Task: inverse folding
């Protein structure tokens, strides 16, 4: 009553043993594909982690530089500006990690929050009545009167160019893990598991427990079993090319690190622009939002001077170098895995599974 290991000679197998063998080959095939995938998956997961750590380090550095701008140059509004600055960098981080948001909405939201502070602390430092309604009016007016000139739009353009590649790379790495996980758990067809039993376990039914499959026979069986997986070859090669393109884009002229550290300067220029145009802005705001209450005698605004760019710290240099090195290492490794899905059958038939150095092997029917 054997279905797979039928043979002319007497056999020590039963139908139940054949079923056990089928369960065994399915388990073994999943394990062997997982073992092949492990290094590749480990490399991608490791890079996702390293990329995120280096990126978070750069973000923290850029955020600290931006906060220090307010603390040194615009002290009257430093305390209240802390929250909008924090929100801006949180939004950027979420954008990179694939959240449904845009760089433009993050930057414009920041400038919407900044304008009431600039207006009431720097342009008209005597304002005391900063009610919720008045603040909201200033926020909405910002979109119409454009107090920060072209600096807010320039910041959107610069950040969008550099963060786009980082966002795409982050999503592409996650996609790579998804593809590998899916191929690991691809179900074997009944024909495939029968062919594997015939190749690996039918010799046992003849008492030939030490004989192993012939190389050519193993390749034929594996290629048949993994036909659907090896069809990924063209797409996988294209995927590697895309990763290469994205890592080059990140390292190109629209450098992520330069864009992030340039946020401080863009904000400084934007605030200076608003201050220079203070009288015109006040006249427009008065028409739209009305005149707020003033304190007796304006507060001093002597210490409102732009500060020179802070020198780059060791943290930034290390994060920058780390990100560049990780990019290079990663893409070199991934380029070597271009043929991963094309050569999966050959790799599974390598090693202990087949008989390489002996003159005898199993061809599916007999020892040859």
Result:
């Amino acid at each position: 009553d054997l279905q797979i290991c039928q043979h002319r000679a007497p056999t020590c197998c039963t139908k139940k043993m054949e079923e056990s063998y089928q369960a065994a080959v399915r388990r073994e095939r999943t394990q062997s594909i997982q073992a092949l995938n492990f290094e590749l998956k480990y490399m991608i997961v490791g890079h996702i982690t390293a990329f995120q750590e280096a990126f978070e380090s750069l973000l923290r550095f850029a955020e600290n530089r931006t906060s220090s701008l307010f603390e040194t140059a615009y002290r009257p509004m430093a305390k209240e500006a802390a929250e909008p600055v924090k929100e801006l960098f949180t939004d950027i981080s979420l954008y990179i990690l694939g959240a449904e948001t845009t760089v433009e909405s993050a930057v414009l939201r920041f400038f919407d929050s900044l304008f009431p502070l600039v207006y009431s602390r720097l342009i008209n430092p005597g304002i005391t009545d900063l009610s919720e309604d008045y603040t909201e009016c200033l926020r909405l007016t910002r979109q119409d009167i454009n107090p920060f000139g072209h600096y807010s739009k320039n910041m959107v353009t610069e950040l969008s160019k550099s963060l786009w590649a980082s966002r795409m790379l982050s999503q592409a790495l996650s996609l790579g893990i998804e593809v590998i996980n899916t191929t690991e758990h691809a179900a074997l067809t009944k024909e495939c598991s029968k062919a594997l039993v015939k190749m690996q376990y039918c010799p046992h039914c003849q008492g030939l427990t030490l004989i192993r499959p012939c190389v050519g026979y193993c390749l034929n069986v594996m290629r048949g079993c993994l036909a659907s997986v090896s069809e990924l070859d063209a797409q996988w090669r294209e995927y590697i090319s895309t990763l290469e393109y994205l890592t080059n884009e990140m390292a190109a002229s629209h450098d992520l690190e330069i864009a992030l550290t340039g946020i401080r300067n863009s904000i400084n220029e934007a605030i200076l622009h608003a201050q220079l145009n203070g009288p015109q802005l006040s006249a427009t705001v008065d028409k739209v939002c009305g005149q707020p209450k003033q304190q007796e005698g304006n507060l001093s605004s002597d210490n409102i001077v732009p500060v020179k760019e802070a020198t780059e710290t060791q943290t930034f240099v290390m994060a920058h170098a780390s990100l560049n090195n990780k990019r290079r290492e990663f893409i070199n490794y991934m380029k070597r895995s271009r043929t991963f899905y094309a050569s999966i059958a050959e790799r599974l038939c390598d090693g202990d599974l087949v008989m390489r150095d002996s003159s005898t092997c199993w061809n599916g029917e007999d020892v040859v």
